[in-house]
Structure formats: C-alpha cells, structure tokens
Specification:
alpha+beta, Cytochrome p450, binds protoporphyrin IX containing FE
Length: 487
Amino acid sequence: KWHNRSRGRPLPPGPDSLPYVGNVSHMRRDEIWKAHRELCEKYGEIVNVPVLGQRIMILGSPRVISELLDKQSSVTSDRMQSALVSLSGQDANFSSQAYGPKWRRHRRMFWQHFFPAASAKYLDVQRDTTRMFLRKLLASPSRLSEHIRYNFRAAIVKVVYGVEEQEDSDQYVAIMEKALSAAEAFTPGRYLVEFLPFLRHVPAWVPGAGFQNDFKGWRDATNWVRNKMVEKTKTGMVSGETSRSVVAQLVERIDGGDAAAAADELEVIKNVALMEYSGGAETTYSTLQSFFMAIALNPDVQRKAQAELDAVVGPNRLPEHSDKPNLPYVEAIHKEVLRWAPVLPFSIPHMTSGDTEYGGYFIPAGTILLPNSWACLHDPETYPDPERFMPERFLRDGKLNPDVCDPAQFAFGYGRRTCPGRYFADASLFINIAMVLHVYDITPPLDEDGKPIKIEMRMENRLISHPMDCRCTITPRSEKARELIMA
Ligand code: HEM
C-alpha cells in the first residue's frame, strides 16, 4: 500500500532518529528555529524529523514553503488535531480547526469584519487606545509590558465586543490574560501529551501529571472569555453601548426563525470573537515589545525616525494613520520589527490532508509541515547582515524599495491559512510605532547607580515567541511632547 502511494519516491532526508521517540530531543532544543536551520543546512530545504510516531517535516527555504504551502494549499492547509487542542480549551479556536467546511464557515465570518476596508473602520479605536497607552507610559514607564498588553487588549475588546477595558477589575484582567496564555500549551515539545494522547487520562494528582492543572486553568479562562464577553455585548446592545461592535453586528443578523440554527450561529459567533481576541492580542503585544527593544539598542534608528516625524508631523500634533505614506522610515521600522523578531518563528504548523510531493520526495497525508519563517527572515541573501536591526534595508532614495522582499510574506503565514488579522495588526502597529517615537526617547534600562544595563535580544522558545527582556528607559522627548501626551 505504501509503495502504491509513494510510487517509489523516498521520504525527504533527515537525521537518524531513535526508536519510538524519534527526534524528540531535537524538538526540545533552545531557539528551535536555529536548530531547524542547522538541519536544513545539513540535509536540504526539506527535512524529515519524525517525533514519537508523528511525521514532521521542516521547510527551510522560501521556495519549498511557497511550493508546498501556497501552490499546493488544497492539500497542505490542515492542522494537527492534537490532544493539546481540546485539553487547553482551544477546540473553539478556528486556527486549530481541521481544514474543511467548519473552518471555512468561521474564517468567512472573521474575514467579513477584517478585510482591508473593514479593518479601516477600527482606526479610531486604535488611535484612542494608543493615546491612552502614551499616557500610561508617562505615569509608570517601568510597567511597559503591562501597558502594551492593555493597549492591544483594550483595542481588540472594544472592536470585537464593544466593551471598554475594565482596568479596575484585577479579576477580569487576570482571566483575559490567562485565556491568552493558552498558546503556551503549543510550545513545541513542552507537553508530551501532544504525542502520547493517552496521558490526557492521567489524573492531576499523579506525580508528573501537574500539566493537567495547567490545562484546566486555560480551559476555564478560555470558556469564560468565550461565553461571558458575548453576554456583555448582548447586555450592552439594549442601551446601544456595544451596538457598533463586531459581535453586535453578527448577533443582529441571526435569524431567530429556526431556534436550533440560531443557537448554532451564536456558537460560531462566540468562537470567531474569541479568535479575534486571542489571535490579535498576543501577537501584536510581542511585536511591540520587540520594537521597544530594537529602539533601545539602536539610537541611530530612533534619531532618524524622529527627524522624519518632526519634519512631517511637526511638534503640535500626534501622528495619524493618514501620515503613513509620508513616513517611509517609520514604516521601514515596522517592517524591520516583523523581520527581526518574528512572533511566530515557524508560523502555525500546517498538516497535509492528502499525499503530495516536493522535489521528487514523497510527503504522505498527515505530515506536519513546519515552515521556518525565522530562517527566511534571517536569510543573508535576502536580508544582508540579518541580525542587525536596519530599517534602511527597505528604503531606496528615501522611499520604500519594492524590490526588497516584504517580511509580511513570511511573518503572517501562508496559503489558505494566512493571517486574516493582518490588516488590523498592520494599522495597529504602525500607529503605535509612530506615536511612541514622536513623543518618547527610548534608551537602555538603568541600574540603581543610573548606569545603562547591557541588554541582549533573545526570543523565548514558544509557539508565540516574546523577547525575554524588554526593559528600557522611556522619557518624553520634550515639554511639548509631554503636553501632546497629556492632551
Ligand atoms: C503582528 C501581528 C500578527 C502576526 C505576526 C500574525 C501572524 C500569524 C501567523 C503566522 C498565522 C499562521 C498562518 C498560517 O497558518 O500559515 C496567523 C494566523 C491567524 N491570525 Fe494572525 N498575526 C498577527 C495578528 C493578528 C491579529 C491582530 C488577528 C486578529 C484580529 C489575528 C488573527 C489570526 C487568526 C484568526 C489566525 C488563524 C487563521 C487560520 O487558521 O485560518 N492575527 N497569524
């Protein structure tokens, strides 16, 4: 049977793997994207690394990624249905759903509210929450990460549910945050239950099964967000408070004639809203953390961006989204952050739903495909001196250079699964980067004696990766800047 399917084509090459466990130790290596790149340097652009009986292939070049995930997307857009999905409460999350009619229905609903023209309706909310973010930074700059979190959470919760962020409620913030952290469950190799599903039946009190408590926490928080937030929207619709939100518009369209169909539609709305929240908040949060880190490490970049902002925007107002065409250097910083510190270094893994092939190699149905987006974004052929944060690489004669490969091609994923929140994310990141640079100076953190602390850029080994350290010193550029922040 195997011979009929493979028609004699070999599997791609790969390292020798141990009996039963395969390459499990490889998957647990630090900065796994670098380890993947080393394997591709040794074995070629597609490498076979089975783990505990699951076939996994690393895709190590733009060519193999485009051939398999874009051109053959009808058979490479599935997702692995791992035990982690239901254990962590993510069955409702359509980024984990199998490729098929259910996923299509969710994605279509999402896209209706996030395609480019629809996303443009949210610019005001993004601008307002960014202004609030600037004020928060002034009050307590050392709480940078917390404020970035607030910023994106507040924007997305307002757009999706129409609800104002309840800053005063620690419990609310804690649950919203806990739901977001469910992505940690998918850190490659962190939970063996991913490959040994019988472990899901081991009770939490058995030594070594503490992971069950992690999963319960994520499940409970995710269910809370999924159900309670939609209830809040529905309550707010009575007074008109939440009526402009995505959820309100979707709920209004439900045809009440058929009770079962209406209940089913409401469940899909809850899922889509949850995904808008969880897909958006964590990714943009990490990208903006990396931005602060990049600027603290590169004073020249900051100086050039501020010179551009001073010339185009001037001292009497804050930048707007409409300034974007006139701020190529700021836009180049935005591109460079996506390239330098990709938040999903190997995207969200795809899975094949049918047999296929690449370069004479057989790729059977049920194979997990891990595109090494990080390696593509750090390829010295495309981006010389790739470890350096250098926005200039995207510019020619003071304008964005269309000949340089746009990092968005890799940072937002591939084929039919490409990130549908990309336009919302782009607008959000641009306005944050522009406003922050316009009013603040960002420099390295200081120790107790006021001396700069040496900081180093390292990303955490997680599916959604974050800089390990993004401490920095944030001070208003001038008295005028302080007035703009407070205005
Ligand atoms: C810097 C910001 C962001 C980055 C870098 C990013 C990146 C990605 C990537 C790499 C994927 C996987 C694509 C694939 O499987 O090939 C993805 C999927 C997804 N993203 Fe984003 N994203 C960002 C922001 C957002 C925002 C703001 C939203 C929501 C408003 C969002 C919603 C989603 C959803 C729903 C999926 C799942 C798509 C599917 O499986 O069909 N993302 N994103």
